[in-house]
Amino acid sequence: xxxxxxxxxxxxxxxxxxxxxxxxxxxxxxxxxxxxxxxxxxxxxxxxxxxxxxxxxxxxxxxxxxxxxxxxxxxxxxxxxxxxxxxxxxxxxxxxxxxxxxxxxxxxxxxxxxxxxxxxxxxxxxxxxxxxxxxxxx
Length: 138
Prior knowledge:
- By secondary structure, this protein is of the alpha/beta class.
- It has five helices and six strands, in the order ββαβαβαβαβα.
C-alpha cells in the first residue's frame, strides 16, 4: 500500500548558499504533493538536504524510522491524523528529530497547543524558507 512516502537520494548543496546548514537531513510531511515539491526546492536552495517526503501521519512515522532525519517539517492538517499527534509520536522515538510544525493557518489559531507540543517551533506555509527553519532550530 502506498502511504505517500517518497525517498530521495541525497541532493547536492546549492553552491549559492552562503550559510550551509551542517548537512541537516529533512523529511517533509504534507498531504499536498505540489507543496512538498515547493518546500523541497526552498529547503534544498537554503542548504538543507531533503531525504524524503510523506503525505500523511502514518507515512511520516514510517519514513522517520527508516530515514532518521535530523528535522521533520510537519503539516498540522493531515488526512489521517493531526501533526500534533505525529509530533508526540516522533518525540517518543530514540534520538528523535527536531520537528517544525507548519500550517496555512496562523499559530494563534491553534491556541496553546503549539506551545505545549514537543517541537522546535511553528512556521506558516507563507513564511517558509530555509532561513526561517534555520532560525527555529537555533
